[in-house]
Each structure stands twice: as structure tokens, then as C-alpha cells.
């Protein structure tokens, strides 16, 4: 069984100067290139780093919003 990991996620939206920080608990590891769904929107993981253990976090990652395709 995979262990529960705490991720500190920086969500970057195109054209917005301020990113949003979200903390989530997930089973398993995330890797650059994977797509995740946070708050009903899809995000592409661009960078993952191990966090400092004394902060109560396992990983820090950066994700950019996946643009919705026009129908």
C-alpha cells in the first residue's frame, strides 16, 4: 500500500501574476508531466521537490493550469 504524502502545491494560472498555494494529501508520488485535478480544474505538474522534513510536508510541486479546448 502506498503511503499518504502531504503536498504543498503552487498553482500557476496563465496571465495571472499571483499564484495560489494549496496543501493536499495524496496516496502515491506525483511526477512532472502528470495531470492532476484540483478544485475542479486540471493542472499539469511541472516540478516536484522533496520538502524539508521539519515543515510537516513531504513534497512541494508546481503545476500550471491546462487550457480548456474550445468546442
Write the layout of secondary structure elements.
Layout: E1 4-12, E2 20-27, E3 35-38, E4 41-50, E5 59-65
| Global shape | globular
Radius of gyration: 13 Å
The helicity comes to under 10%
Query: Order of strands across the biggest sheet?
Result: 2-1-5-4-3
Name the average pLDDT.
86
| Largest beta-sheet details | 5 strands, mixed
Number of domains: 1
Element-by-element helix/strand order: EEEEE
Low-confidence segments, given as residue ranges, are none
Number of helix segments?
0
Number of strands: 5
Would you tell me the structural class of the helices and strands? mainly beta
Q: What's the N-to-C terminus distance?
A: 40 Å
Strand content: over 45%
Structural account:
With 71 residues, this protein is mainly beta. It has one domain. It contains no helices and 5 strands. The chain has strands spanning 4-12, 20-27, 35-38, 41-50, 59-65. A 5-stranded mixed beta sheet has the order 2-1-5-4-3, with no helix packed on it. The radius of gyration is 13 Å and the shape is globular. The model has no long low-confidence stretch (mean pLDDT 86).
Give keywords.
globular, 71 residues, mainly beta, 0% helix
Task: Summarize the model shown.
The protein is mostly beta strands. It has strands at residues 4-12, 20-27, 35-38, 41-50, 59-65. It has one domain.
